[in-house]
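WARN retry 2 of 3 for item q-0093 after timeout on previous attempt; input resubmitted unchanged.
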Amino acid sequence: MNEEVYHIPALLPETLSALDLRPEGTYVDATYGGGGHSRAILERLKPGEGALFSFDQDIEAIERAIPDERLTLVHGNFRFLTNFLRFYGVEQGGVDGILADLGVSFHHFDDAKRGFSFRWDGPLDMRMNQRARRTAADLIASASEQELADIFYLYGEMKNSRKIASAIVRKRGEGQIATVEAFLAVIKPFINPRQEKKELAQVFQALRIAVNDELEALRQFLTQACRMLRPGGRLAIITYHSLEDRLVKNFMRTGNFEGRAEQDFFGRNLSPIKLLSSKPIVPSDEEVERNPRSRSAKLRVGEKL
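OK item q-0093 returned
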């Protein structure tokens, strides 16, 4: 596969600017993916001095590592950020900037055997970490009707989530729903034909989030990222849907995920991080035209206090 099309990094110049890169600094790319952001960061680090730690739980991304002595590629989930960094000798407060691009790589959507897209038939898998035990088919087979309804409502914002869940439970009584095609056959009667692509994307997003426990992993990552940054260090997060963006915005604004501002006796904000702009940075029209999949990207930037 051509390296240039494996993944086109969204908001690349804006992200590099947000990180306020220092040539001798220590940085983390928590979502290596196709290596686009990592490569651009390495180009700005001084040989022999700067350091970049990049994370990815997908072995296919790890196998595409950029050969560079300043890069340490970690095969693991970013929810274990602190443990991995300490293993490599980086202590709390020792990082100058942390980036996470929460988008799914083109490669995942376009690879039928990974099961991320409704466009191709293949196994109903959706695991970001191929060593993980539970696939989307396993989740569909084992979750209760209420759990399934909650997944499609909370993570996919499907108003008819109960009907979809009920249909899945009825169908799985006849046998396992193991492929994308079989899953589509169950849910398509509940999809509005005039909004088919949008609603199918919402259902698949919901299932992917649940399979990979994405929102809880994001909460754990953000909490640890804040601790690992030095005062003045930057946190740059690119989100692609409202569930992620709400968590990131609340955390950067208040230091918690509920968005509950806490103040001391003198009325000073107790948040350990400062949101640098009330509005997210979004792609230009030119970038969207060049890379349509960046359309929903939102970059938020915080600074450690």
